[in-house]
Design goal:
Elements (H helix, E strand, L loop, with lengths): L10 E2 L4 E7 L5 E9 L10 E11 L1 E7 L7 E7 L11 E3 L3 H13 L5 H9 L9 H10 L6
Antiparallel strand pairs: 1-2, 2-3, 3-4, 4-7, 5-6
Length: 149
């Protein structure tokens, strides 16, 4: 099952790491990509030295709810299984989705040598993601004398 793209939540820390995490609605796996960053001068974007990924499946049970008397629509949703101790955490197992592993490996292979700024630009401009930035859309509309939608 393919992983749908979504806005990537990339966080960087002072320890020289950046990460992004996304859950696949198709196979229930959580993909986390971690990148080791190079040291850089304060005004430049850090470069990705190496990257790795971790994929885990969230164990879940199916819950069905039936609508009110006026509508007999049955809604199905998944509820994660959680631990019983202290702060309940979702129970994770190994992800066995070959498509997710293939996509993750291609992503990890693409990252080294790129800067965080380059990666954000790729996501914003549609090379990796499906959306362009608001500023880019506005510029294209103005340069082509098209009405704003």
């Amino acid at each position: 099952a393919p992983v749908t793209s979504a806005e990537v939540n990339t966080n960087s820390t002072s320890s020289g790491k950046a990460w992004g995490q996304q859950c696949s609605p198709n196979c229930g796996c959580v993909l986390r990509i971690e990148a080791q960053l190079s040291e850089c001068p304060s005004k430049t974007s850090p470069t990705i030295v190496s990257a790795s990924y971790h994929a885990r499946r969230v164990m879940a049970t199916v819950h069905k709810t039936t609508g009110s008397n006026d509508d007999d629509v049955t809604t199905t949703h998944l509820k994660p299984l959680t631990t019983q101790q202290g702060a309940s955490r979702p129970i994770l197992t190994s992800c066995t989705c070959p498509t997710l592993h293939h996509l993750a490996q291609q992503t990890v292979d693409h990252l080294p040598g790129k800067t965080l700024a380059q990666m954000r630009n790729e996501v914003d401009m549609g090379m990796v993601g499906v959306r362009s930035s608001v500023a880019f859309r506005h510029t294209v509309l103005r340069e082509n004398v098209l009405p704003a939608i």
